[in-house]
Specification:
Blueprint lengths: L6 E5 L5 E4 L16 E3 L13 H27 L3 H25 L15 H25 L3 H23 L2
This protein binds fe (ii) ion (2 copies).
The site of one fe (ii) ion (FE2) has 8 residues, from loops.
Length: 175
């Protein structure tokens, strides 16, 4: 019998550990591309990042956006019209939650959303709104990746903008 060795892989963006015989295509937690998931032995702990005032503002805005999207997708999953849209909304919500944690770690603080999140009354309109949310996030994250002076901030925003791009494609495909 062939012996398969299970190894720990760790995502350099969200810090979560994946166990498997091979590295995953994408981080199963935050959705970051596989190149960000390395053998756990090479993992670098960044923790709170020293940042310029602008980057701090950008991270706070990103955190608010992620928390808002997490709530939005959670509600969409609760109200979903079928198992496929439910699965998609659930997965997107979980990934946005992971993204929020990444920004909290970088900032070294947490915030609480006060606003209630409203969702449209059917899946088609929910996917349409999801598309708008993701587009907004991508635009902001790419701008931050360009202007941030800190390498870690650039890397995180670039990796997460790529994930939001995946979300955008998903929200278009299943509409
Ligand atoms: Fe990750
Ligand atoms: Fe996100």
């Amino acid at each position: 019998m062939e012996v398969v060795y299970i190894k720990p892989w760790r995502c350099q963006i969200c810090g979560e550990t994946y166990l498997g015989s091979e590295a995953p295509d994408r981080c199963p937690y935050c959705g970051a591309e596989g190149e960000n998931v390395k053998s756990a032995a090479y993992y670098l702990e960044y923790g709170k990042v020293e940042m310029s005032e602008q980057s701090r503002k950008d991270c706070l805005e990103a955190l608010r956006l992620e928390l808002n999207n997490e709530k939005f997708y959670e509600k969409c999953a609760e109200e979903a019209e079928n198992q496929i849209s439910r699965a998609i909304f659930k997965r997107l919500g979980k990934q946005e939650g992971e993204h929020a944690e990444v920004f909290e770690d970088m900032l070294g603080e947490e915030i609480e959303l006060k606003e209630e999140v409203q969702i449209p009354d059917n899946d088609y309109d929910r996917f349409t709104e999801a598309h708008e949310h993701e587009k907004m996030a991508i635009d902001l994250y790419l701008a931050v990746a360009r202007r941030a002076p800190e390498k870690r901030v650039k890397d995180v925003f670039r990796a997460i903008s790529d994930v939001e791009n995946e979300h955008l494609i998903m929200s278009n495909t299943f509409k």
